[in-house]
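== Sequence and structure of one protein ==
=== Format: two labelled lines per protein ===
==== Data for this protein ====
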Amino acid sequence: MGLFNSELKVVNIGLESFRQGLNDAGVKSVQAQFKPPLSAETALFAKAAKAAARVDKANRKALDRILGARPALAGMGVALDVIPGMKRDLILHAGPPVAWDRMCGPMRGGIMAALMYEGMAKTPKEAERLAASGKIKYAPCHEHSAVGPMAGIISASMPVFIVKNEAGSNYAYATQNEGLGKVLRYGAYGPEVIERLKWMEKTLYPTLKAAIESLGRIDLKSMVAQALHMGDEVHNRNRAGTSLFYRAIAPAVIKTCPDPERAAKVLEFVNGNDHFFLNLSMALSKASLDAGRGVKDSSVVVVMARNGTDFGVQLSGTGSKWFTGPAEVPDALYFPGYTKADANPDIGDSAITETNGLGGFAIAAAPAIVQFVGGSAADAVNYTMAMYGITAGENNIYKIPYLNFRGTPTGIDVIKVAKTGILPFIDTGVAHKDPGVGQVGAGVLSAPAEPFRRAFEAFAREL
């Protein structure tokens, strides 16, 4: 009888709307953050549980390699000369494999821009015909040790950064960042886009290349650690990372560039582009995660990537196989005149940062990001805290001041994702769905469930 004489308190494990009647009656209640498992094949969860000790050991091995990586900027080169398997008629793109007929608008626009930049087409119409003709080959950046933001387009003549994992022998490659707005990576292909790319090839690239060579190397890992302490999460906010890179490179540019005016323009470009460090943060994450590949029985995710049509993941223990599902449209703050109806589904290799314990996983270090969707600093902390529930460990270098310098959640475990239903949290830019328009906003989203369900089921069957 004491139950009926005490204050009623309710825990709701169903839809949150079930609480409305309780709220109307003034009854206190809390909403359980429960999500069903991603897979209905309960036998696979039992199989994974039986092999838990073996999987945990493998995950520790993979995570140790990832955390032990020492990514450093070693130099620059032209894509055709340095990217493994690069060819004149090959264009690399973001995300898992996709044919021209399934490519989204911004990816098609980026390819058209690349073909005009390469001199293989003079007009957008010519570029579109050539792109669809079968004469041009396409492949994911990730299959060539590279990464690219948004459309992720890399063509033969484009200059790229060379990042070396000094704890191993693997390299990663990424282009220079163009800035925001109407740029190739967001699918724009106007004359100003090509003109900027040519300036980056003829002026920016040789100037930075000479400066990096004079320095010998730039330690990117410690730079990211500092940037986290300064308010970046090095995916959607790179102001601190770019500033730290600027401080490192500026004296070398001044010393090595024979033309003071050219040196000034190069430094002004880097200084005026808060996202310049993004491509470097992606390449260092790629170099770190590739070190964790190929560990038998490891359920650690080493790639999350989107091509604007599909979202794909790869696991350490399943080789180069892609597990995919439809990409989703982010919740975003849109530029004036645009709405969610204009947005393309999520696109880009930049989720490699989240895979490496940065970006949305480190968003508690950069609460300003959640303002994109009207969130609060508390929301940023909650997003990061949730990610600890689906990762194999915590980072030993990348730490969050607000969490008492706790290491960022690192090493997404596909078993934990499938079991809890908690999906990786990503912050990202948003491209217009039509080619030629460019960026229309920035926002956040959770990864789609389908790729992780498929990855878990395939992994568990192979145990």
